[in-house]
Automatic annotation (TrEMBL):
Keywords: Signal. InterPro entries: Pan_app (IPR003609). Pfam families: PAN_1 (PF00024). This is Apple domain-containing protein. It comes from Owenia fusiformis (Polychaete worm). PROSITE patterns: PAN (PS50948).
Length: 184
């Protein structure tokens, strides 16, 4: 193997490791994607084993999982809250006891239906009225200094920009009529 070939292999391996380090998990208690399971496992003793099954899934890219502690059931899915299954993503889940986890990559956008972040004097930036979509609301956030998330209500077309994230603020689920959108 030449030095150039060895360098190319090293660069590819380093890039893979960097990408893996940028993937995080979001937990939503009492959330689920109805009817979009690629694999279902039974007798899974804990949430961490379920996460491991998702991380090592074969035949599809596992982007989310749901775990039910009392039944020890683990459901793996290639879908997640921002995917084409968005309409099937439910918070709260109509079935009791499920905990939902999804991958997200740093630099990506996170959309959570029926959720909102608590707005405080410390994290409030601005509220805009007559905003026609969550995408336009999020675009305003992208061009606003310090903005990390939005609460968007499609019914009254209200867009609230905040400095909070689900990790630093209080996420309310359910929050009827709202969509929470966060940039990473």
């Amino acid at each position: 193997m030449s030095i150039i070939s060895a360098f190319i292999v090293l660069v590819i391996l380093a890039a893979t490791c960097i990408c893996d380090e940028k993937v995080k998990w979001l937990k939503l208690s009492n959330g689920c994607i109805i009817g979009h399971n690629n694999q279902v496992h039974t007798n899974v003793d804990n949430i961490w084993l379920c996460m491991h099954l998702c991380n090592t899934a074969v035949g599809f890219i596992c982007n989310s999982f749901e775990y039910h502690a009392s039944s020890k059931k683990c459901q793996l899915s290639e879908d997640y809250s921002n995917s084409t299954a968005y309409a099937y993503f439910k918070v709260p889940c109509p079935y009791q006891g499920w905990e939902y986890w999804q991958r997200y990559t740093l630099g990506s956008r996170l959309d959570i239906p029926n959720a909102c972040i608590k707005v405080t004097l410390k994290n409030f930036i601005a509220t805009h009225s007559n905003i026609g979509s969550k995408n336009y609301c999020f675009l305003i956030c992208l061009f606003t200094s310090g903005c990390k998330s939005v609460n968007y209500h499609s019914g009254n077309q209200k867009c609230t920009l905040t400095k909070a994230t689900y990790a630093t603020g209080t996420l309310y689920v359910p929050c009827p009529g709202y969509v929470y959108v966060e940039k990473h």
